[in-house]
């Protein structure tokens, strides 16, 4: 776990059908964690289908890394309410990045290299694709939130090679 495997850019795109934690709505925000790094989106007031479209960056060091996210409802006078959590194994994304170097995938256009299907071992809510888009490995994924009545979060994850590895 010494040398970085690359820069992980996580775009928190939007949430869908998030749980109500205030009277009629919620004020959601997302905390994304990778290893000992964490980052937070802005709060979207009075919204159960928020659009964040925020890019968060992390250094990827562990080939068995798991991306974790937690959704909270911002409260003014008490502790923020939990609105669910989800995890995503980054192994498929890392495997595709390595495969791309081995088979020399073209850097022009878009090539789908792998699909990740929902199952009991992941929080993926619908089929997710991992593609090589103009030379970058990108995964588009919807994650179902756990420990909550409802909710999904859409992410776009991009793995950028460390300098000097192209």
Gyration radius, to the nearest Å?
17 Å
User: What does the average pLDDT come to?
Assistant: 91
What string gives the helices and strands in order?
A: EEEEEEHEEEE
Shape, principal axes of CA atoms: elongated
Class from helix and strand fractions: mainly beta
Give me the count of strands: 10
Number of helices: 1
Q: CA-to-CA gap between the ends?
A: 20 Å
Strand order of the largest sheet: 4-1-10-9-8-7
Proportion of residues in helical segments: under 10%
Low-confidence stretches: none
- What is the makeup of the main sheet? 6 strands, antiparallel
What fraction strand? over 45%
Summarize this structure as a short list of keywords or feature phrases.
elongated; 166 residues; mainly beta
Description:
There is one protein chain. With 166 residues, the chain is mostly beta strands. Helices cover 8% and strands 48% of the residues. The strands form 2 sheets. A 6-stranded antiparallel β-sheet has the order 4-1-10-9-8-7, covered by helices on one side. A 4-stranded antiparallel β-sheet has the order 3-2-5-6. The longest helix is centred in the middle third of the chain and has 13 residues, at 91-103. The model has no long low-confidence stretch (mean pLDDT 91). Belongs to the plant CAR protein family. Its main location: membrane. This is Protein C2-DOMAIN ABA-RELATED 11. Keywords: Abscisic acid signaling pathway, Calcium, Cell membrane, GTPase activation, Lipid-binding, Membrane, Metal-binding, Nucleus. Residues 1-104 form the C2 domain.
């Amino acid at each position: 776990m010494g040398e970085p495997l690359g820069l992980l850019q996580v775009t928190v795109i939007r949430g869908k059908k998030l749980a109500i934690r205030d009277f009629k709505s919620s004020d959601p925000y997302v905390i994304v964690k990778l290893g000992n790094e964490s980052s937070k989106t802005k709060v979207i007031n009075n919204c159960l289908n928020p659009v964040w479209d925020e890019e968060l960056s992390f250094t990827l060091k562990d080939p068995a890394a798991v991306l974790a996210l937690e959704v909270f409802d911002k409260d003014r006078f008490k502790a923020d309410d939990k609105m669910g959590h989800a995890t995503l194994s980054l192994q498929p994304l890392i495997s595709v990045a390595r495969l791309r170097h081995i088979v020399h995938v073209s850097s022009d256009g878009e090539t789908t290299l792998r699909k990740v299907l929902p199952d009991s071992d992941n929080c993926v809510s619908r089929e997710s694709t991992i593609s090589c888009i103009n030379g970058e490995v990108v995964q588009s994924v919807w994650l179902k939130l756990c420990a909550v009545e409802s909710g999904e979060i859409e992410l776009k994850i991009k793995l950028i090679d460390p300098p000097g590895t192209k």
